[in-house]
Amino acid sequence: MPLISFTDKGLYCEQGNFYIDPWQPVDKAVITHAHSDHARGGSRAYLCHRDSLPLLKLRLGPYNYQLVEWNEKVILNEVIVSLHPAGHIIGSSQVRVEYKGEVWVVSGDYKTEADGLSGIFEAIPCNTFITESTFGLPIYNWKPQQAIYHDIQNWVRSNELANKTSVLIGYSLGKAQRLLKAVEEVPGNIYVHGAIWNVHETLLQAGFKLPAVQRITPDTPKEAFKGSVVIAPPSAEGSLWMRRFASYSVGICSGWMQVRGNQRRRNADAGFALSDHADWNGLLQAVKATGAEKVYITHGFQSVFSRYLNEIGIDASEVKTEYGTEDEETQSAN
């Protein structure tokens, strides 16, 4: 019997009687991070990293949460479970599962470059590694974060000189916090969409240090946006909500912007390949560093990545799951 099986409810450890990031309600859920494709409501009990708690409460509401620190061991029916940094977003963790000397690791979503917010990815030796491959194509090769930050800062400065509002599009949880760090070095006000404001306030109350922002409301005067930075989620892109900024430029911040055609298709003025996922080299480095004899690939470019791993002598298989869409919450745009 495999230590973790792939079921219609999610990744299941029968020996420990728990699920990892289940997509249906279960008795015991171990959660890698607070994005909506990995954390869903309705389960009786949740195990998560301490930093994920405020985000899970914001998105799921009050539940029975058991909190752990990274590397802290928990025994579930003789199965040893521990969480380890994934570097994806604040609180994101990999799940290490050990039973009778056999070790499996579920990566969740991860990136291997430290971003200064999300913890530093830790490669965990294991027998079997279950990994994502969101950007599992050789074309996806990220520039260093600081270089991308400089590109964003220079773009904002050029818009300021033209008396334009710089509108940066990025997910409210994960990407938005990194964008705040990118633009805090550029003088001027930072305004945020309501969805980003909610996450921002939650993190501030939890003790995280983030740059000061102002929430956009119907009462915010239009002239206040000129030369300023606005950070908004993808749901705002191309919406009526954007009209209040008058003369503005849109910069989309996503790993998909590595392909120039995507910027044109989304009618953006600029594209910045800033991703919260590992690129091709990061994925390969992570897989090799685990020393795993078997690798399962849950979402992304599964066929390409698994084929390449098999070609270089690593036994890899594709697994169909419901992971992969970091859905934005449909909150008020005010």
From TrEMBL:
GO terms for molecular function: ligase activity; RNA endonuclease activity. The keyword Hydrolase does not apply. The keyword Hydrolase does not apply. It comes from the Bacteria. InterPro entries: MBL, RibonucZ/Hydroxyglut_hydro, Xnuc_lig_assoc. Keywords: Ligase. PANTHER family: BLL1145 PROTEIN, CLEAVAGE AND POLYADENYLATION SPECIFICITY FACTOR FAMILY MEMBER. This is DNA ligase-associated DEXH box helicase. It comes from Niastella vici.
